[in-house]
Amino acid sequence: xxxxxxxxQTISSNGKVTVTYAWGTLxxxxxxxxxxxxxxxxxxxxxxxxxxxxxxSFVMRPDRTLAGTVRLAGQTYSGAFLKQ
Length: 84
Known about the structure:
Elements: E1 4-11, E2 16-23, E3 32-41, E4 44-47, E5 55-60, E6 66-72, E7 75-81
């Protein structure tokens, strides 16, 4: 299990967003937190590359759950986010 938190801070009318993203241990990568930016296109939010080199994206599913995907060091991790 991989723990992560996504907090969307702002959403502009052109789809640009600012976020805070925090992650737990993932592979050889240690926990951390970083502010960042991204863009929403359709139902997908793609963040700019994280400081740890990860590419992170989120898709809103039809049932209104959020599916996250992290690509880091040649590995892909995915799962559902729970709203809290």
